[in-house]
Write a structure and sequence with these properties.
Layout lengths: L2 H20 L11 H8 L4 H16 L1 E6 L3 H15 L2 E6 L2 H13 L7 E3 L6 H7 L2 E2 L8 H4 L21 E3 L8 E4 L23 E4 L5 H14 L2 H8 L4 E3 L2 H10 L4 E3 L3 H9 L4 E4 L5 E3 L5 E5 L5 H12 L1 H11 L25 E3 L3 H23 L1
Parallel strand pairs: 1-2, 1-3, 7-8, 7-9, 11-13
Antiparallel strand pairs: 3-12, 4-12, 5-12, 6-9, 6-10
Length: 388
Amino acid sequence: MSTMLKIATSFLLLLAMVACARGPTPAGQVTTTPAAARPESGARPAWELDWERTLVAARNEGRVTMYTTQGAEFRTALGEAMARKFSVTLDSLTGRSEEIAERINREQKIQAYNADVLIAISTTNFGAYHDSGVLQSLEKVVVLPEVLGPKAWWWGEVKWLDLDPGEKTVFAFRDAVSPPMLVNTNLVKPGELKSWNDLLDPKWKGKILLSDPTTGGAGGQTMSTLAFGIKDWDFVRAFLKQEPTIVRDDRLVTEWVAQGKFPILIGPMKGVVYQFQQAGAPIDYFTPSEGTYSSVGAGTVALVKGSPHPNAAKVFINFLLSREGQTIAAETSGYQSARVDVPTDRLDPVTLRQPGIKYFATIDRGYRQKESEVRREVVRLFQEYMKK
């Protein structure tokens, strides 16, 4: 036997011995190497792969257009973050809520698709957008787990303005509060007011100011939520018998309380009150034991149909709803985020949800379903009262 043949024979015998040492492969089991098993056990979630593709497409689109009612600081800070993090330019068009609604509807009718994202929708104007069908579903747009996690939001769930649970077109990210009442501390002693029912005491008859509830605003929202969620219609009717003085001028009503002409104001405006407080006026906020309402205002985001930059819009919406995006939104708007992990140290304490106080959310579906009816009845009652 030649030397080469001996070497080959020895090698084959060695392979046979190794195979016997390992033992037979069980029937039906496919042998795989550890390297082949890793991709399946360590597979990345679908949302992550989708997000990476979206980021690339967003950079290619290069810009996103937002129609909003928010101020310049809000727009600038978010624009800087979008450019820095995602290489996407944020364009903005600003205006009053009714102006934006009219513009969107007009553009949609002529198929002039300019807007991507809307931050201008509240519970009161939602119907105008919904009925005209100008919004896209966000169900496959909002994908980040930190946004969709229910524990991220103080309601304990993600909140949509849509009355139909399946639609999901307007995502709420804010639930702002403000004390419903302002008092002159020289005329209202500590402990003299505790409950909303205390306003029905005969000693306050003819001594209560109310921001006009027939024009919406704080006065209208307070009376509507008192009628539906916080108290009831009997309370509202009893309150009218206290002969409140109804005024539309926010500065004037605050001035009258500061001067002591009236001890109590329902529906104060924070910005006006602050000016008088800085001047040393003896006034302070008060929230009754039954609580007050909280409102998303225009703290919502929606995606417009025909969005010209859908991927950049998707990135913007997810970023806005993240902890980082909501921190920017809160600090530049002055309103507390509905996310529970967003810092509040740079916000006015008056605007923060307080422990121990009950807040009736105007986004409550039961209230939303009857909101128009409730508001109409509030207007009717108070117009009838004012005529007398």
